[in-house]
Design a protein that fits this description.
The structure holds two protein chains of two kinds. By secondary structure, chain A is an alpha+beta fold. Helices cover 38% and strands 17% of the residues of chain A. A five-stranded antiparallel beta sheet of chain A has the order 1-2-5-4-13. A five-stranded antiparallel beta sheet of chain A has the order 3-14-15-12-11. Chain A has a five-stranded mixed beta sheet with strand order 6-7-8-9-10. Chain B is elongated, with a radius of gyration of 19 Å. The chains are: A alpha+beta, B alpha+beta. The structure holds iron/sulfur cluster.
């Protein structure tokens, strides 16, 4: 894992001191709320419905055991004993006081963490493949580039006041587990004819009010030139992005307004002044960062995940292995996905004791490393297959053994109206109702891969547009209703879901989705996942369910 | 600040406490209470404006932030005699907290196999 150098640590420590002073001045009245609000947002502190919420950055979703323990301690000492892992691989604490926020940031800095750039119109925390470094299909570990991007974008003076927030996602594998096509910039690693690794650069993707699938602006940029190319994109956006209307300010609107060809021409013109400058990442710099992400010392073992499932002594263990453990690039090892979607558990929430346990388990079974997924689950990336039974038993005893990763009850949901000041409708109760409806894990496995995403408003924090089944909470004259879409996906074939029918109350939404699943089971062809069936037949057969439920 | 609300609607002034963000309501005693039932209800635009002007002093004094005026349910006032109640789901949740059971940090069993 990346370790801060003196520069990183000094920067973060100075920021804590600055914020402590800003909070003191706010509390004394020297700063008005108008003056203070942008300062607190720059440090990840929001005022939500019931309290302050602190969003802590987890760069590219990678955490050490020590960092996880600190998150547990913060949850216990300053919050109500739990935290919420988000779709941007961050963690949010929901019950923070303003007076204690500087102390939390100071605690975070002791484990090389912070809340910088988790809000505001800047380049946000770079997200990545949660299986980075261990996925069998990966070309190279994308976290090396993600770390370079983190260093480049942190407090970048030119890009601290962009027209709007800016999100970058990166994957090093052909299977896209980072949703790169729905980010302001998405980076997808390829090799060129000579075998050199570089990035396809995708621009102008995003969800929210105007969902757009990003377009490839350059099919291949060598790693060495990536920063200068991205700097060129940022400069064009910073110059031409709209600042007069926040709903038109994202880069996707600019790309759409002038067209990808003209946008590309502007970027290329800017790039000619930037490439072959100090923005080029020298091979030795890249190698120095790569050294932080060197694989751990794996034992020479044999065996596959499938064999581990077949050989499991217990049917429940076998089911958990099939659902939650993915193949690893090193024989005899597996990638363990820990579901934070148990029945009645708000999606993505973990208690302090669960976090502490996960830190212990990571140290004992996973070379001290944990990942956060954009599906709001956690990953232990380096587990010996022979350790799976003991690990599963420990997870199961702590309420973390739900065998549903990637299945119908692995629901992605934003905090919604239970916490969020911007929400139209609640997300968590609907997610819980659906989880209860699909609680039968044997049936869930029979249904197979199916992603349900629920957002409490059009800001789409739960990425509902790209859920296989997407649900958007709307407010019609004070009534919470839910608009359902079908056929979205965030993988390498990213697509936006299509609206099926009018918005319905929560209980109807549960029936409707159960009906969609029944329809799928009735008409699917062998080997077809839910999303494949929707792609083959369209939404019409599912709309019939809608009419039946009316 | 005040949204466009019906001129004759019963209303209360709400805010968040600066120190911890807790939702509070202006009371008849000129204090801030976390209980909506204790809020002072005003029923005319001039009364609302006058109340807001007074509350602004507590914004300036760093006691509260995010001053707002919300409509409340009149039938609850009359029929139950137990103070105003929220009309919208949002205000109901602000008044009483999340509608879900919050996670409880119960101790978890740490396997004996861990060092
Ligand atoms: S989608 Fe809307 S309701 Fe949900 S967390 Fe984002 S802003 Fe809040």
């Amino acid at each position: 894992m990346y370790q801060y150098d003196t520069h990183d640590q000094t920067l973060v420590d100075q920021r804590v001191a600055q914020f402590r002073d800003q909070v003191a001045r706010r509390l004394s009245g020297a700063l008005t709320e108008e003056q203070f609000k942008p300062l607190r947002l720059m440090n990840g502190l929001y005022l939500q419905l019931h309290a302050y919420m602190l969003r802590v950055a987890i760069p590219y979703g990678t955490l050490s055991a020590a960092q996880m323990r600190m998150l547990a301690q913060i949850a216990r000492r300053y919050d109500r004993g739990y935290g919420h892992f988000t779709t941007r691989q961050n963690i949010q604490f929901n019950w923070i006081t303003l007076a204690e926020a500087p102390d939390i940031l100071a605690d975070l800095s002791r484990v090389q963490m912070h809340a910088l750039q988790t809000s505001g119109n800047c380049i946000r925390n770079v997200t990545s493949d949660p299986w980075a470094g261990v996925a069998p299909d990966e070309i190279e570990d994308p976290r090396i580039t993600a770390e370079i991007l983190r260093q480049w974008s942190t407090l970048h003076p030119e890009f601290s006041y962009l027209p709007r927030k800016f999100k970058i996602a990166i994957t090093g594998a052909p299977s896209d587990r980072a949703a790169v096509r729905v980010h302001d910039i998405g980076l997808r690693m390829h090799r060129d004819d000579r075998g050199e690794a570089g990035y396809e650069v995708i621009v102008g993707g995003g969800l929210g009010r105007t969902p757009v699938i990003g377009k490839t602006i350059r099919p291949f940029v060598p790693k060495r030139h990536l920063l200068s190319y991205l700097e060129a994109i940022m400069r064009v956006y910073n110059s031409f992005g709209r600042r007069d209307n926040m709903y038109k300010a994202r880069i996707k609107i600019l790309v759409d307004a002038i067209g990808i060809t003209e946008f590309r021409d502007l970027v290329e013109a800017e790039w000619t002044t930037l490439r072959e400058t100090e923005l080029d990442v020298a091979p030795e710099t890249y190698a120095a960062i790569a050294a932080h992400f060197a694989p751990p010392a794996y034992e020479a073992l044999t065996g596959t995940v499938a064999e581990a499932a077949d050989g499991a002594s217990d049917a429940v263990l076998a089911r958990w292995i099939r659902a939650n453990v993915a193949p690893h690039r090193v024989p005899g090892h597996g990638i363990v996905n820990v579901s934070l979607k148990g029945t009645d558990q708000p999606p993505g929430d973990a208690t302090a004791s669960q976090m502490d346990l996960l830190a212990d388990l990571a140290e004992h079974y996973s070379h001290g490393e944990i990942r956060v997924t954009h599906e709001q689950n956690l990953v232990l990336p380096h587990v010996r297959l022979s350790d799976l039974p003991a690990l599963w038993a420990a997870l199961e005893a702590a309420g973390l053994g739900t065998p549903n990763v990637g299945l119908v009850s692995d629901i992605i949901a934003c905090p919604g109206l239970d916490y969020c000041a911007l929400a139209n409708a609640r997300s968590i109760p609907l997610a819980q109702a659906l989880t209860r409806r699909f609680a039968d894990m044997d049936r869930a496995q029979e249904i197979g891969e199916l992603h349900i995403n629920i957002s409490g408003c059009i800001n789409a924090c739960a990425h509902h547009h790209v859920g296989h089944i997407g649900i958007l909470g709307v407010d019609r004259h004070g009534e919470e209703l839910y608009q359902v879409t079908l056929g979205g996906r965030s993988d390498e074939q990213a697509a936006l879901g299509k609206v099926v029918g009018p918005a319905v109350p929560a209980d109807r939404a549960v029936d409707l989705i159960a009906g969609f699943v029944d329809t799928y089971l009735a008409i699917r062809q062998p080997g077809e996942r839910f999303i494949d069936t929707v792609a083959r037949v369209g939404t019409t057969p599912f709309k019939e369910t809608l009419h039946a439920a009316a | 600040m005040a949204r466009k609300l019906r001129a004759d609607a019963p209303r209360v002034v709400t805010a968040n406490r600066l120190l911890d963000g807790v939702v509070v309501y202006r009371t008849a005693a000129g204090t801030w209470s976390p209980h909506l039932a204790r809020a002072l209800v005003v029923g005319s635009d001039p009364a609302v404006e006058a109340l807001l002007a007074v509350c602004e002093r507590d914004v300036a004094g760093c006691e509260v932030v995010g001053l707002d005026v919300i409509e409340v349910r009149p039938d609850a006032l009359a029929a139950r005699g137990d103070g105003p109640r929220a009309i919208t789901q949002r205000e109901a949740i602000r008044a009483t907290g999340p509608t879900i059971a919050l996670p409880v940090d119960r101790p978890v069993t740490r396997p004996a196999s861990l060092p």
